[in-house]
Amino acid sequence: MSKCSYTLPIGPVHPALKEPTMFKFVMDGEIVKEVDVQPGVNHRGIEFIGMRRNPLQVLHLAERICGICSIVHQYAFTMASEKAAGINDIPERAQYIRTIMAELERIHSHVLWAGVAAHELGFDTLLHWTWKLREDVQDVLEYISGNRVNYAMYYQGGVRRDISPEKIPRIKEMISAYRREFQKLADAFLEDPLFKHRTVNVGVLTKKDALETSAVGPTTRGSGVPKDVRVDQPYGGYADLDLKPCLPEQMGYPNTGDTYAKTVVRILEVGQSLDIIEFCLDNMPPGPIRWEMNVNKVLMHMKKAGGEAIGMTEAPRGEMIHYVRLDPGDENVSAWKVRASTYNNIIAWQKMLVGAQIADVAIVAASIDPCIGCMDRVTVVDGETGKEGVMTKEDFYRLSVRKTRRLRRMKGKPSGGGW
Amino acid sequence: MMDINDLYVRMLLGVLAMLAAVVVGLAYKGIDRKIAAHMQSRIGPPLRQPFRDISKLMQKETITPDGAVDWIFHGMPVIGLVAALLLVLYIPWGPLSPPLKAHGDLILVLYLLIIPSLAMALGGFSSGSPVAAIGAQREMVMMMSYEFPLAIVILSLAWFYTRVLPGSAPFAFTTMEAAPIWGLVGPIGFIGAVLLLLSLVVVTPSELSKIPFDAPEAETELGGGLMAEYSGRDLAMFYIADAVKGLVMAAIIVGLFFPHPLSPIVEKYYALPLIMDQPVVAWIIDGLFFLFKVFLVLFATVTTVRVAFPRLKIDKISYIYLVPVSLMALAGTLLLYLDTLGGV
Amino acid sequence: MASPMWFEIFRQLFDRPFTNPFPVKYAPKNMHAVAKAIEEGKVRINPPVPVPDNFRGKIEYDREACIGCRMCIKVCPANAIEFVPPPDGGPKGGKVKFYMSRCTFCELCTEICPKHCIRMSTEFLMADTNKYSDNLVITDSGRFAEQPPPQAPPKPASPPDAGQQPASGE
User: Fold this and answer.
1) Which residue of B has its CA nearest to C25?
2) How far is C123 from chain B (nearest CA, A)?
3) S-S: A374 plus which of A167, A340, C124, C130, CB 3.0-4.6 Å?
4) What average pLDDT does range A89-104 have in this prediction?
């Protein structure tokens, strides 16, 4: 009806956003017409810090990329650096323990997401109830690893702490408690008429859009794309499991790709994670937990080794890739690149937010479980004019040529093939 | 016509009533927060937290945003607070009849109830922030929606009293106090009265901008909405106005539907001669009973509701008030009408 | 409108709140005064949640046993460890210093230490207004009673019947 539209900024700091990022909406009344996402306020330069540290140190830096899914970053980095350094004999027991930790974290991340989603809807009671339930899995993570948030569990060639048989009953107790309690909570979400009113047909990502934007994780599975790294390229203990990607249709809800479908996927995945943990606990092979007990020897091995590799894990938010290059003789990580799952998913925001009401922005933005800290990129600002710009493909090409020349000058290497 | 001494007494009473309403309203806010916290398995803030909030806000800087219309922006909190405090003078407080009962009735109360919301909306528009403007638009839309069932409830009650008790003042609280509605209706009318009560109960949270009807403020969507730019003293004034309005809404429900005093029952069953001789004791008992009734109403209409529901979208809010709640109120009116037919 | 949550809400209204009221139930007006009163034993605080045995808390350092090999400095991800050269300037006898304000509690120094003279206690109350206060810079925690360290290297605990097998033999 109205011909005049106006611009509404949300962010960089806003109660709907748990981390700083910037939206600019062109609005028509309450309806969003255009979306512009402008990240770049939360970049911490972690990759650069990592290139000044040896792989053992980077393990704990990688863990601190994200506050929620800390272990998947460590997992991906561990796998990438192991492959790069040629460490292949990872004991099976260690692989199972890695899987258990990753799945415990998936539970805690999904439960946390559910609470955040409830909060975005102004449903604080559900938020507190969900987070109360989350304490249980946090306690178990603390019981296994010693700390609640940054577990420091993984390690090139194995894990650092064992899950001894006397610890298993406590974990099993948690699993059965979750099977009991979580169902009630899932009902509180999925059966609540007002929750349905706020999520059904809100923030729809069609299957076509999901494929085009190459969204990952529950965002894409909600649209019916069976994409899951744990199934497609199994790693760790997942190879022994018969897994299927969780799609909303398994719960009898069509794969519509709306926020409700994404909630269904996450609730299904909590159940799946419980099954995986139980399987891994029951079938954990005996044996050592490390390829090499002496930390110093591992360090020396990594210093001598050279190579590059990619580590891929299925984070609670979706596929996550770490690229690592090690140069022989250089004890530090020579190159490290993190492509977190949110980087794919924010592109889907463009499709999901257009046509939504302003009231839906919070829940739609939260529906991909954004982790800005994981994915944020730098903003290039002209120091003199204060103008912000967008880098194009040509700009990147020019910059990389310039960098190559600078590196050659520095190393005094003759030009040839190289990098 | 009152003489000059009476005027002074009334003014004194009025000021005291306003002060008491502010204190009691803030205390109920504290209780509300505490109970909501316990329902969410939290400890919650101490009961005196609202008072602390006010004293803190009073010390804070009051910021005027760029592009705000200065006098509207700073004037609206005053108007909102004044209107909320004026309401106090026209509403019966248990055993205490309204300080200005002869000068205003339910119609005036209806008008005064709109003013704080209107002041908030105007303040939001004048702040020059797009977020506040959206919040103000929503507040206006919501006001237009919930005023309709609210008016139906009050008008049909008044109409019912003119039918049943001809000659009484239909818009005065004293009429309801003298003869509560439950004693005047038959079984059909009883259902009608319950429906009217329910409509009023549904209107209460949105009158107070509480979840699920807090779309104008909507913390996670608009970051405070029409309150987004307010700070310091201005915010404190709106906060007090909100607390007083909560108390007033509960007092209206109590006054319209549950004006029963407790002292006759105590007197009848316990036959305490003390009460017969000392009206102060009866007054205290009735006062405490009134405060308890207000607490029950606030617990049922604000605390429980805001804990148990998520926030609704503005189009849904509008729909809820204009269709189901209005229909419910109209059905209540119809049943009351049928009841009067049967009675005649 | 009935939701499974309704029952839960009213149950929780009469339950004890889930929040752990450590150290005191409500935030006091003056935290420093309360902290002082707690130290003097005037205020009783609510106990914290117990930590597990393998909790990684404040570092303890056996200065006497340290040989100054600098291995811990090499692996510390946060550069929280400083080398203190020996007073005579010789090649041997250097010690280290831990800055807890930078520590990330990863336990790598504990694990790599050849003399097992670093260990992690279960103490976690380390808040301070000065990051270089004596509480947060660890130079010596005295001799450790027993030499075998509690955590490092972790024992490969497997089911009692299954013995330890070589890594590549699986």
Assistant:
1) B43
2) 26
3) A340
4) 90
- Which ipTM score applies to this complex? 0.83
The answer to whether B310 contacts A30, with C-beta atoms less than 8 Å apart, is: no
Smallest CA–CA separation between A164 and chain B, in Å?
Answer: 34
Distance separating alpha carbons of residues B39 and A125, to the nearest angstrom: 8
Residue C151 has pLDDT above 60, yes or no: no
Give the chain A residue nearest C160 (alpha carbons): A165
What does the alpha-carbon distance between residue A222 and residue A205 come to, in Å, rounded to a whole number? 8
The closest CB to that of C55, out of A57, A146, A292, belongs to A146
> Looking at per-residue confidence, does C44 or B242 come out higher?
B242
Interface test with A, best of B39, B142, B206, B221 (most A CBs within 10 A): B221
Is B314 within 8 Å of A30 when comparing Cβ atoms? yes
Contact status of C21 with chain B (Cβ, < 8 Å)? yes
Name the helix (H) or strand (E) containing A32: strand A31-37
| Lowest mean per-residue pLDDT among A57-66, B17-26, C3-12, C55-64 | C3-12
- The answer, yes or no, to whether residue C75 has pLDDT greater than 60, is yes
CATH topology of domain A46-372: Cytochrome-c3 Hydrogenase; chain B (1.10.645)
Give the chain B residue whose CA is nearest to the CA of C10: B39
On chain C, the residues whose CB falls within 8 A of the CB of A56 are 75, 77, 108
Looking at 3.30.70.3270, 3.30.390.50, 2.170.150.70, 3.20.20.70, the CATH number of the domain C51-155 comes to 3.30.70.3270
Hey, where are the domains in chain A?
Answer: 46-372, 379-419
Per-residue confidence band for B271, with pLDDT thresholds at 50, 70 and 90: low
Query: By CB neighbour count within 10 A (0-12 exposed, 13-18 middle, 19+ buried), where does A356 fall?
Result: buried
Percent of chain A at pLDDT > 70 equals: 97
- DSSP per position, B37-86: HHHTT-----TTHHHHHHHHHHHS-----TT--HHHHHHHHHHHHHHHHH
- Mean pLDDT calculated for residue range C75-86: 89
Which pLDDT does position B55 carry in this prediction? 92
DSSP C140-168: -----SSSS-SSSSPP----TTS----GG
